Amino acid sequence: MEKFEQIFSYINEKAEKYEQSESISFLEGVLQSLENILDEKDTWIGKDASKEEIRKAIQIAILKGMRKTSQPNHQMTPDTLGILVGYFVEQFYEDQLKNSQLSVLDPALGTGNLLLTVMNLLDGKVSATGIEVDELLIRLAADTAELIEQPVVLYHQDALQKMLVDPVDAVVCDLPVGYYPNEEVALDYELCAHEGMSYAHHLFIEQSMNHTKDGGYLFLLIPANLFETEQAKDLHKFLKKHAWIQAVIQLPENLFASKAHEKSLLIIQKQSKTLRAPREVLLAKVPNMSNKQALSMFFEKVQVWKKNK
Ligand code: SAM
Question: Which SUPFAM superfamilies match (predicted)?
Answer without folding.
Answer: S-adenosyl-L-methionine-dependent methyltransferases
